[in-house]
Structures are given as structure tokens and as C-alpha cells.
Amino acid sequence: MPHTALKKREFETLSQFRYQLRRFLRFSEQATRRHGITPLQYLLLLHIKGFPGRDWATVGELAERLQAQHHGVVALISRCEARDWVAREQGRTDRREVEVHLTARGERMVGKMAQLHRDELLNLEGGFLLPRLQEPGADREDDLTRGL
User: Fold this and answer.
1) Considering the domain boundaries, does residue 112 fall inside one?
2) What is the CATH number for 105?
3) What is the three-state SS of the chain?
């Protein structure tokens, strides 16, 4: 595939995307800390709650989602376990695996934080919306509620 020089509009688009992404990440960092949870702890809870097809995830799956080392994720899980946000269970199909489940307290925390994050996404002036929200006639809030 030949490399062609980027056009001014492409630079503007990339710049705008990075700006909106950084605004959202800064919001997330501030909002999580204000509510007594670190950004990484929130991401762990979010990835458990949002794991496709089930309400739990393995340590390895969470490491992939967080793009982190396995041992670092184990330490993060331990800190969340100490806050009673998650519980570990032996794997149902593979007893060598560890399943990580949200507790009732973790469900409440991730629900509260996800609501704040969804609302912030809706307020980003249309510059950082999920693709399905940009379809003609799409109900933005309903799609975000289902998508986040």
C-alpha cells in the first residue's frame, strides 16, 4: 500500500480526535478520583461488567482489555477485592483459570461511574460519539445506554 502525504483536513481530523479523547480521559481521571476509585479500578470494573456474553471475565481477558501485564492485573484485582468490588472464583470449565465477578458493591460503583461517563460522552459536542450514534434517525441516548 503506497504511503501518501496526509492532507490538512486529515491532520485536523486526527487532532480533533486526540483532543476529544484527551478531554474525555481527563474527565474520567477527575471523576473517578472524586468518587473514591482510581481510573484503573474503574476500567477493571467496566471491563468485567461489559465483557461480551457474560458478567465476569478471567484474569487473562482483563489483562488483554487493560493492555497490562498479568501480574499487574492480579494486583489490581486484589486492591478491588479489598474494597469489596470484585470476587474471584475458580473457573467453571477450566479449574486453572480464575473468574473475576463483580460484587453488589462493585455493581453499584460501576453503574454510577458508567452513568457519569455516558453523560460526558453525550456532552462532547458530537466530536467523539460512537459510530452507531451518527446514523440518521438513531436515538443517541438509547444507543449509548445499550452500548455502554
Assistant:
1) yes
2) 1.10.10.10
3) CCCCCCCHHHHHHHHHHHHHHHHHHHHHHHHHHHCCCCHHHHHHHHHHHCCCCCCEEEHHHHHHHHCCCHHHHHHHHHHHHHCCCEEEEECCCCCCCEEEEECHHHHHHHHHHHHHHHHHHHCCCCCCCCHHHHCCCCCHHHHHHHHC
